[in-house]
Amino acid sequence: MGKNNTKILVTALVMVVTAAMMIEEATSIPICGVNTNDLKKCSPAVTGNNPPPPTPQCCKVAKAANLECLCPYFTRSGLDTAKIKALGTNCGITKKPSCLP
Q1: Cα(89)–Cα(9) distance, rounded to whole angstroms?
Q2: Using the 8-state DSSP alphabet, how is residue 40 labeled?
Q3: pLDDT for 55-94, tens place per residue?
Q4: Which residues form a coiled coil (predicted)?
Q5: Beta strands in 6-89 (DSSP E)
Q6: Is 70 exposed, middle or buried (0-12, 13-18, 19+ CB in 10 A)?
Q7: Those residues with Cβ within 8 angstroms of residue 82's Cβ, 6 or more apart along the chain or in another chain
Q8: Which distant-in-sequence residues (6+ apart) come within 8 Å of 67 by Cβ?
């Protein structure tokens, strides 16, 4: 591959990565004080049979979110509310929303 072809390939790759990042940002919807893409950081901690503890990034999102506002989404999501409650406990969130008694 020639020097010019390599430059073109690298430029094209940078453009594709930039476009992908822009699309990712564009599809994030703010809801209850956080972006939906940020909520995905907590997905591993609330799914599966034996979920891992939440990551520091997940806890940061959970602490920033208006959990009471998220209650309707918790109940419609089909997620186990015990796992959501455990996430809050593991992140040090003491104020539990009404939907997670």
Answers
A1: 48
A2: G
A3: 999 999 999 999 999 999 888 888 899 999 999 999 999 9
A4: none
A5: 30-31, 34-35
A6: buried
A7: none
A8: 32, 88, 93, 95, 96, 97, 100
